[in-house]
# Entry
Amino acid sequence: MYYVATKICRTSEIGLNGNLFGGTMLSWLDEAGAAFAGYLCRAPAMVTLKMEEVLFRRPVKISHHVRIYASVQRVGTTSMTIDVEARRFDFDQDLEELVCSTRMVYVKIDAEGNPAPIDSRLRDSLDQSLAEFARH
# Structure
């Protein structure tokens, strides 16, 4: 998996039980996944087609740092399937702990919002694109 983003849980994102709202976590995963897919597809416009089963494994509390990781599972004609997971970082133990995971499908779109083809060379050069992403 490739590191994509870090989010810090704020007081305004906490629900009645003292945990991060699930919807906030989903928006973090969606934004990070779309940015990852867009980078790899060299496309400024990637939209979410679907989010598969989401597993909320552990709570996130105020001031927790959440690192988001992603990996490509499949590249189609106009879509890319990505596994996305969030890991809570424990500074004291220098340890990451999985808190949420899902699989998402993003579609490349054109200026009118219609599905647009992903460059077929991407499938051939995916390893190179991922290596570039890891360097940035």
